[in-house]
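Exam revision sheet. Question 4 asks you to relate a sequence to its structure. Input first:
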Amino acid sequence: MRAVVAAGVAGVVLVGAMGVAAPGGAVAAGSSEAASAPAAAGALVGAEGGRASVNGAARAAYIESLQDDIRFSVHARSVPFSKPVPGIPSGMATDAEGVVRFSHAAPAGSKPVAAEATVDCLVTSGRTATLTAVVDADTPAMPRGTRIGISVQQGGKGEPDRVGFSWGAANIDTETLDEKGNVTISRVGTCMAPAPFTTVLKGGFRVVHAELAKFPGARGAQRAQGGQGAKGGQGVAGAQGAAGVQRRG
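Answer key, structure tokens:
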């Protein structure tokens, strides 16, 4: 019970204190004009040059702050095998680029707080996308370099679009406590985000799905498979590579 309560409090604090004012007083998560564009409900979902993408801007509901103005702008596209990492020189099929902007304003007319983050990972399935992005500048709630997770579900058949964000749902480490004895917020890994747990009130998103690509050649897959940990255990990248090799036979 304590962990559940702490998670809820963490979500409220982070959403309420997110970011810094955008340069020039602009709302970084997209203007009301951008968010007022109707969602492309029923738009075709499929390959677009073999690249997955998510585009749109929206105002979202949040159960802890129903009267607040919370906005997201997402422009992301996949760029497979473009970001080499140690042990995986080819990069990953989920590599992506783009930008996420988000802001929060209380109904009392307070100045919106906002932040911007650079997309580093994207994966799609039908009308749903999960992506992560790294915060570009220090904010009151998140320091520069913090990775955030965003999920988007494009509505269909009259259903509204939906969105989820890592700091608004349970993302805690129950095994690690801070100096006050409270649970800590867990680090977000690439492409990790909660389900799109809340609805879009205004605006919307378009998700273009594309299947994940194979590692470029057997050598790339073998290098991914060989990512061993310092103590001889297989790391996350190594485990993913091994799974990919097994699936391909």
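Marking note for examiners. Residues 1-48, 228-249 have pLDDT under 50 and may be disordered.
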